[in-house]
Design a protein that fits this description.
This is Carboxyl transferase. InterPro entries: AccD/PCCB, AcCoA_carboxyl_beta, ClpP/crotonase-like_dom_sf, COA_CT_C, COA_CT_N. One of its GO terms (cellular component) is acetyl-CoA carboxylase complex. Keywords: Transferase. The chain contains 16 helices and 19 strands. The protein folds into 2 domains: 211 residues, Alpha-Beta Complex (2-enoyl-CoA Hydratase, Chain A, domain 1), CATH 3.90.226; 238 residues, 2-enoyl-CoA Hydratase, Chain A, domain 1. Helix content is 34%, strand content 20%. A hairpin with a 2-residue loop joins β11 and β12. The protein is globular. It is of the alpha/beta class.
Length: 479
């Protein structure tokens, strides 16, 4: 790596991200073109952004890293053009783009030239969406129109202390100021908006990006996301039934060598999304969660088991990404219905529709495992056989139906005494809510013991590897 790239925080980030000695800089001699407002007197080496390519564990990747030591990293015409050029090359080569952001915004001295060039970056990102993976990490300021860049990317990371991400700064929001609510903070952006996948130190973020790149296909056609499986394909997942509430733990147990890369981990924790490996193949995982346990086995959060608007949104976006890049999808279903609250009603129908559409629209191999409750329309939206799941398994103690059997009996036999209600609830559970009842109707393919989950889902995805599915001819859906 040359001196320009290593002489700043921007260059050091690239060096830490890529395999040692692999970075090749492109456009290192480019400087600002504008001469307005005495710009010709200012030194703008590389015009404030280092661009080029290298490898991550042998995988080609294109990188841009903004240099805050040059005009605070502000974006000018040539700065934006350099990034757009990297996108052009990445699209031709079919490799991911990683953006390391530290920027004071658009360069005022270049005004409309900077705006025009910056707009071209939006266009490149839109064209690249669904073709190559896009990853953004925010290490400093990312404000105003630049905040759209991580939102257009597939995955976003944020430095927990120095990172600032906002459209409007906290103090510019009427009725707010930063001490009341720091809407630009990593905590707010990861927990409340769901824009950020994970937060941490600079070192942790760069390590996470390396891990993620190694899990993902390099583009939507050439899949290099396979790895040699050194785990037992028939490994018994002892005690996995105890993880039906915290399905993040269940996914860890199912995956090869317990590999699990969780996405949007601080947002809508009642839904788990992320990547696992099954027989060396990357699989996208979506799972309902009613409890969150820490490493000590203590419950740190608890939910009512319902499908929330935020959880549905999180899952829908993830499934859409997996489908775009031909990544198979595994779902673990344990849902008691839809969230019931005034706040949820504002968005729940819309977000549930988007989740339903995402699963139904996806043509990749889809496997569903019912690990607990599967009640009502919320169950139907969670990758059920009805909306296109290729294989559906159910644990032996799963419950599948309209609602809880006791509640159904109370409704159907209103006014009956407790003994009748109890008897009818037991009858309803056997006839309508058991996994055997669903299997007899063809809604469940196989009832399995929880400890055998890993070998069954591996077998299913192996069988589905060559899946092809034709859909009605259309430009795109509108959901």
């Amino acid at each position: 790596m040359d001196n320009l790239a290593t002489g700043s925080a921007a260059g050091n980030r690239i060096e830490s991200l890529l395999d040692a000695g692999s970075f090749v800089e492109i456009g290192g001699a480019v400087t600002a073109r504008s001469t307005d407002f005495n710009m010709q007197e200012k030194e703008t080496p590389a015009d404030g952004v280092i661009t080029g390519y290298g490898v991550i564990d042998g995988n080609l990747a294109y990188v841009y890293s903004q240099d805050a030591s040059v005009l605070n990293g502000a974006i000018g015409e040539m700065h934006a053009r350099k990034i757009a050029n990297i996108y052009d090359m990445a699209m031709k080569m079919g490799a991911p783009v990683i953006g390391l952001v530290d920027c004071a915004g658009l360069r005022l001295q270049e005004a409309t030239d900077a705006l025009e060039a910056f707009g071209s970056l939006y266009l490149k990102q839109a064209m690249a969406s669904g073709v190559i993976p896009q990853i953004t990490a925010v290490f400093g300021t990312c404000g105003g129109g630049l905040a759209v860049v991580p939102a257009l990317a597939d995955f976003t990371f944020m430095e927990s202390k120095k990172g600032k991400l906002f459209i409007n700064s906290p103090n510019a929001i009427p009725g707010n100021e930063i001490s009341k609510c720091d809407t630009s903070s990593a905590q707010f952006q990861s927990e409340s908006t769901g824009l950020v996948d994970d937060i941490g130190t600079e070192e942790e973020i760069l390590g996470s990006i390396r891990s993620l790149v190694c899990m993902l296909p390099c583009n939507n056609e050439d899949d290099s996301s396979y790895d040699t499986c050194t785990d037992d394909l028939n490994r018994v997942c002892t005690g996995i039934e105890n993880a039906s509430e915290d399905t993040a733990i269940a996914l860890v147990q199912i995956s090869d060598n317990n590999i699990f890369f969780e996405t949007k981990k601080h947002y809508a924790k009642d839904m788990v999304t992320g990547f696992i490996r099954l027989n060396g193949m990357t699989v996208g995982a979506v799972a309902n969660r009613s409890k969150v346990y820490d490493s000590e086995g203590e419950a740190t959060a608890e939910y009512d088991g319902s499908l929330s608007a935020d959880g549905a949104k999180k899952a829908a976006e993830f499934v859409a990404f997996c489908d775009a890049f031909n990544i198979p999808v595994l779902s673990l279903t344990n849902v008691s219905g839809f969230e019931a609250s005034k706040c949820a009603e504002k968005n729940l129908a819309r977000e549930a529709a988007k989740l339903t559409y995402a699963f139904a629209d996806a043509t990749v191999p889809k496997v569903n495992v019912i690990v607990g409750k599967a009640y009502g329309s919320a169950y139907v939206s969670m990758n059920s056989k009805a909306i296109g799941a290729d294989m559906v398994y159910a644990w032996q103690d799963a419950e599948i139906g309209m609602m809880d059997a006791a509640l159904a009996a109370k409704i159907m036999y209103a006014g009956a005494d407790a003994e009748v209600i109890k008897e009818k609830a037991s009858e309803y559970r056997e006839i309508q809510s058991s996994p055997l009842a669903a299997a007899r109707r063809g809604y469940v393919d196989t009832i399995i013991a929880p400890e055998d989950t890993r070998k069954y889902v591996i077998g299913a995805f192996e069988m589905l590897f060559t899946k092809r599915e034709d859909r009605p001819s259309k430009k795109h859906g509108t959901v």
